[in-house]
Amino acid sequence: MNSGNIINIQIEDDSDVPIISLNETHQYYEYLRDGLTKRGIQTLINTLAWPDSLSIDKAIIPNTWTALEYTVHHSTRDAYEVLRKHAPTNNPFMVMEFYPGWMDFEGKKHHTLDSQDFAESVEKILSYNGSVNFYMAFGGTNFQFTNGGDWELVYNSITTSYDYDAMITESGDAHETKFLAVHNAIGKYFPIPPMPTPPSPSPKGLYGTIQFDFYANLLENLHAFNILYNINTPIQFEYLNQSFGYVLYSTQLNNFIDRIEPLFLPWMQDRAVILLDGIIQGIIGWTEKDPITLINLHPLKTNPNPRLDILVENKGRCCGDLPTFGCNFKGMKDKPRFGLKELSNWTITKLPMDDKLVNQSMTFNWKPVTFNMSVISSLFYRSTFTINITQPLHSFLCTDNWGHGFITINGFNIGRFSEKGPQRTMYVPAHILKQGSNEILVFESDRRQTLINMKERNMTFVDHHLWTD
Fold first, then answer.
1. In a 10 Å sphere around its CB, with 0-12 CB exposed, 13-18 middle and 19+ buried, how is residue 184 labelled?
2. What is the pLDDT of residue 290?
3. Residue 17 confidence class, pLDDT cut points 50, 70, 90
4. 427-458 pLDDT, tens per residue?
5. Checking CA distances to 212, which of 22, 275, 326, 377 falls within 20 to 30 Å?
């Protein structure tokens, strides 16, 4: 790389934790640096550090410069001084990752950051003749299953929305207050045109309420997917050559009448829906309120040999995870136990829910939705909605009254939804929509309330994001 628009490349150790030694971190950074230069990269290369002595010491290696990352809760003066202590010359003061908000986690509070506090912190960096890069300047979306996870004492799944409370929102609009506040802060140091008010948001498409009239039971339509038979021990996603989606582990129980035994999963990630003869028994998962791996299976009087299904979802791999945490391998390994008995002879169904899903769903046995229907299994729903304008607009689809799952529109997976919040709406970009009839497919793996009025099996388009309190 000898010319062009790229003037700098950052290398980063995102598992920056104290238990990794100084020498090991230096070797890692040198490996990354040398890997770039051996491949012809001739730009500037920087490392990244938090504004403390240990992190900066780990990041300083020859033939690179070191940038900082921090939040408004850090002192810019202290950050500047500690950087100058370890890199007094030939190292610019740049905050390469300055956070206007933070990512949201499923079931946690929606993150926001006061606009004026953030703008004042930007101004403080510039007052030290510093440079700043915003992470994120433009909020994003974890479409399909591209959301990650994070490990802070416990595992947390990142939401589909990656809006980050950024200056430019997920749908491309100026933040109501933060965009103008940051603009004015920068304007005190650089000649930029004045902006009395922030740009107006783009118009949004209000395409009405979608009523779902047909459903298909996942367990009754496995013929559409890749099935592996007679597997003695469950296999993880990665060893099935599957990166995302779900895997279904199924086996037969024997002599089950009048028995109530605990089911023990020795190792499972990230979230498992437990079904017995197609009826949901409970949920096991790191992100559940009670993250236990024991669940009582209630006997079905009518069948002494019921089928046990364990539907495991990959909720997102961790960034900067240490291998011993095991956060990045998904599915089940080792044999589950039912009571004292190990369960073997598994059938494994790969459910990547990828771009083949639309064609696969055409082979499903679709049934009409009936009112006051109990949702006791993992179900697909389908419907259509009509757009009358030639150039569709961005929109948001509200998932209130739905449980856990994902949505595809015209074959494009717009991401996961969860009744645990904080995200209540899904961003629908204009480019996946079309004039005329649009197809929507929803998969709901489970929900808290099983008996519902099927009139509530609908979703409504709105013109802005909604979040739980």
1. middle
2. 43
3. low
4. 999 999 999 999 999 999 999 887 666 667 89
5. 275
Superfamily (CATH H level) for 209-216+364-462: Galactose-binding domain-like (2.60.120.260)
**Model pLDDT for residues 142-183, shown as the tens digit of each residue:** 999 999 988 777 788 999 999 999 999 999 999 999 999 999
Domains 209-216+364-462 and 222-351 share a fold: yes
**E strand or H helix that includes residue 162:** strand 161-162
Give, in order, the Cα–Cα distances in Å from 107 to each of 159, 325, 419. 9, 22, 8
- Give the fold, CATH level 3, of 222-351: Jelly Rolls (2.60.120)
The three-class DSSP label of residue 56 is helix
Residue in 190, 48, 68 with CA at minimum distance from that of residue 123: 190
Tokens 């979802």 — which residue? 313
Residue-wise pLDDT tens digits, 331-377:
998 899 888 889 999 999 999 999 999 999 999 999 998 877 777 89
Structural domain boundaries of the chain?
1-98, 209-216+364-462, 222-351
SS3 215: strand
Q: Residue 183 burial by CB count (10 A; 0-12/13-18/19+): exposed, middle or buried?
A: middle
Residues 210-213: contacts with CB under 8 Å, at least 24 apart: 210/383, 210/384, 210/385, 210/440, 210/458, 210/459, 210/460, 210/461, 211/383, 211/455, 211/457, 211/458, 212/369, 212/381, 212/382, 212/383, 212/442, 212/457, 212/458, 212/459, 213/368, 213/369, 213/383
